Amino acid sequence: MVSWDAYLYICCRRLMEFPIEKRKYGLSQSNLTTDYTGLLPKRVERVVKAENSAALQRIVREANESGQQISVAGLQHSQGGHTYYEDGVVLDMRTFNDVINIDEQAKTIRIEAGATWEDVQEEVLPYGLALKVAQSQSIFTIGGSLSVNAHGRDIRFGPMAGTVKELTLLTPTGEIKTVTRDNSASWMKYVLGGYGLFGVILDATLELTENDVYTIHTEELKTEDYESYFSNLLDNENTVMHYARVSVAPSSFLDEMYVIDYAETGNQDNETPLKGEQGVRLSKFALDIGRTGGILEDLFWETQKRYINSIDGNSITRNNAMRSESTFMEFTKPGKVEVLQEFFVPLNSYEEYIGDLKQLLPRDDKDDDFKIHNITLRYAAEDLTQV
Ligand SMILES: Cc1cc2nc3c(=O)[nH]c(=O)nc-3n(C[C@H](O)[C@H](O)[C@H](O)COP(=O)(O)OP(=O)(O)OC[C@H]3O[C@@H](n4cnc5c(N)ncnc54)[C@H](O)[C@@H]3O)c2cc1C
């Protein structure tokens, strides 16, 4: 008979052997170009690494003369294969990643569009500064994020567009333009959230804020209580960041949820280092169990709740709250794809929306081809500045 210790040892060994998958799709797939999902690859004419703005300007002008189409790639996390043109030119912006200037007094950073939020965080941390708005992961480029007008966990600042002071833009006709809120509001209005259709963002000047320290509050709720919970939270100015997860496990399907709030402590921090990826193997192992569905998805949900409960009362810096782990989510099973989709629902229709989902989605999708693995809720204030 195998002893408990031996059993535990075997489990730990198995976990250490558990592979950490890396994405396989992207610009380097011969001359087929696709995004993170690998859906709808396009045969492009060429992929050009952005070296400097003059070279990009030349490519845009030449393309105009020959009638060729251009698309722009950051880190290619946009999903659905809609970004690239058949026989077109793809501008790979990842090499365009220098920090141009940090103004500590004005709390701004000017940075090239192919840099990532990770790059920004590394630069601003020593000044005790942090981003106003970024996605919950820091893996995306500035250009790619501004072009979708991304939102994050902060419930006090609206989407990202509101934090942009200035842009340098390469227009579709090949001009390089400085775009500010004062002198050319119409460009700003289209470019931020414009999916690269209104020009190439070369660099952006972004507003920053303090690297505040927050206390984490977590709580389990019934989905029917969320609307009033969140309305109260919005009135409570002490809470600055928030997100929630709804159960997709069969035994609590769309009934249970948990919330995670970040409340001001009044303290700031420029010493706590930026956190790296932690517990990748364990999280990936747990997520893969959840992906199986059925009773194992119930187990995954219970494990998530336990973990979330265990972080109640912890402290975290703003920078670290904006750089959640992402490697554990990588999914590269041949013939299958995982897609993240966003739906914007007015707060006062949330309950009705969940009710409709209950009618539409199967409680247990274990044997279905189409499965739902996760529902995360965020708040994005309405953005009246963008088209
Ligand atoms: C795991 C995960 C978590 C996510 N979380 C969030 C979240 O919390 N909030 C949120 O809002 N979104 C979220 N997203 C979506 C994400 O914000 C977008 O997919 C974002 O565009 C990714 O940036 P990227 O650098 O990969 O952009 P890409 O996919 O490379 O590009 C996005 C779009 O911008 C255009 N573009 C890229 N660079 C430029 C440029 N320099 N100039 C002009 N146009 C350009 C591209 O042509 C494309 O249309 C998430 C996505 C994933 C996969």
Describe the structure.
By secondary structure, the chain is an alpha+beta fold. It folds into 3 domains: 32-93, 2-Layer Sandwich (Uridine Diphospho-n-acetylenolpyruvylglucosamine Reductase, domain 2), CATH 3.30.43; 96-210, Uridine Diphospho-n-acetylenolpyruvylglucosamine Reductase, domain 3; 213-377, no CATH class. 27% of the residues lie in helices and 23% in strands. The protein is built from 10 helices and 16 strands. The strands form 4 sheets. Strands 6, 7, 8, 9, 10 and 11 form a 6-stranded antiparallel β-sheet that branches. Bound molecules: flavin-adenine dinucleotide. Flavin-adenine dinucleotide binds next to strand 4, helix 4 and strand 11. Flavin-adenine dinucleotide (FAD) binds next to strand 4, helix 4 and strand 11.
Topology:
Blueprint: H1 4-17, E1 32-33, E2 42-43, E3 46-49, H2 53-66, E4 70-73, E5 89-92, E6 99-103, E7 108-112, H3 117-124, E8 129-131, H4 142-147, E9 164-170, E10 176-180, H5 185-191, E11 200-210, E12 212-222, H6 226-235, E13 239-246, E14 256-268, H7 280-292, H8 295-310, E15 315-317, H9 318-321, H10 350-360, E16 375-377
Parallel strand pairs: 3-5, 4-5
Antiparallel strand pairs: 1-2, 6-7, 7-11, 8-11, 9-10, 9-11, 12-14, 12-15, 13-14, 13-16
Helix pairs in contact: 7-8
The structure holds flavin-adenine dinucleotide.
